[in-house]
């Protein structure tokens, strides 16, 4: 049986979160307001996490996409730079 994986070039990720929006749209996941999110009513299969390296003023920010890997034809791949 063929097994596929997805490779993400972290140097090209700009943190735009288009992959998150595409995933939510494709899978009909509701987007909730911040006050509802504080109550734990969020759901996400795709998440872009921000990682800060270094200390101010010599710091950099990297974005780490965390996909779910469950779609056959994932919408997050088509929108990723």
Summed up, what is this model?
The chain is an alpha+beta fold. Helix content is 23%, strand content 22%.
How is this fold's topology laid out?
Blueprint: H1 18-26, H2 34-38, E1 47-55, E2 58-66, H3 75-79
Antiparallel strand pairs: 1-2
List keywords for this structure.
81 residues, two-stranded antiparallel sheet, flat
Explain what this protein looks like in three dimensions.
The longest helix is centred in the first third of the chain and has 9 residues, at 18-26. Strand 1 and strand 2 form a beta hairpin. The protein starts with 17 loop residues before the first helix and ends with a helix. It is built from three helices and two strands; from the N terminus they run H-H-E-E-H. Strands 1-2 form a two-stranded antiparallel sheet. It has 81 residues and is of the alpha+beta class. The model has no long low-confidence stretch (mean pLDDT 85). It is flat, with a radius of gyration of 15 Å.
